Amino acid sequence: MTAAPQLVVHRDKELMARAAAARLITRIVDAQSARGSASVVLTGGRNGNGLLAALAASPARDAVDWARLDLWWGDERFLPEGDPERNYTQAKEALLDAVPLDPARVHPMPASDGSNGAKADAAAEAYAAELAAAAGPEDHGPVPTFDVLMLGVGPDTHVASLFPELPAVRETERTVVGVHGAPKPPPTRVTLTLPAIRAAREVWLLAAGEDKANAAAIALSGAGEIQAPAAGVYGRSRTLWLLDAAAASQLPHDLYPPAVA
Ligand SMILES: O=C(O)[C@H](O)[C@@H](O)[C@H](O)[C@H](O)COP(=O)(O)O
What we know:
Elements: E1 6-10, H1 13-35, E2 38-42, H2 45-57, E3 69-73, E4 75-77, H3 87-94, H4 120-134, E5 148-152, H5 167-170, E6 176-179, E7 189-192, H6 194-197, E8 202-207, H7 213-219, E9 238-244
Parallel strand pairs: 1-9, 2-3, 2-5, 5-8, 8-9
Antiparallel strand pairs: 4-7, 6-7
Helix pairs in contact: 1-2, 2-3
6-phosphogluconic acid is lined by residues 43-48, 75, 77, 87, 152-154, 158-160, 184.
């Protein structure tokens, strides 16, 4: 049984992004000090990219040893390489092009014009193989033990590209699957599954803005994971919701934590 999710509520979207970026820097530095490297899973979307931009602008940014950081993605829009709508493209613009990462340690999900052909299911199998190759005997299954796995939360409670009631959220064996007919464009995507997400040490859910208030309240009030995928994600040692006051506005009062700045 996993511990209950922890909640932190910040004044507004901008402060939440800056505070989450500072939190991520600290977690990466701690992991690198303890194990010599760190492993982080990025998320797409406005909140995810806002955090990356805040990280790029952080005065503490270069406390991170960027050459000893492994970056993975929780999901990807299945589009051609360089498409401005790809999560990888947006992450590069927000942060990756500004820091001295080791390219061999940056693992974008395949593009639709890559070697897997225009088949999202084949791209998913390739990424699952890449994850398995990076896993070691100390890891929990065919994925590396990510230090932090971040997930933006959709207004319908989707996380990554796990949408309510669609097949991907029901997957219990494979670590990566193709998604077809996603309600959030583009319709074709590649996504980690719940088993892969749950291998992470810490799972952070990012929810800022009034449009996330209903999703946060549903996910945190005992909804099932098929109907509310954000309710089904948890880390091995920590599950953390990072919200702003607007996204927390519909939470039951007993869940609403003491406000921070
Ligand atoms: O490919 C994507 O779109 C994301 O991975 C998706 O899961 C996103 O994180 C949520 O939809 C929240 O997006 P916003 O932060 O823009 O609301």
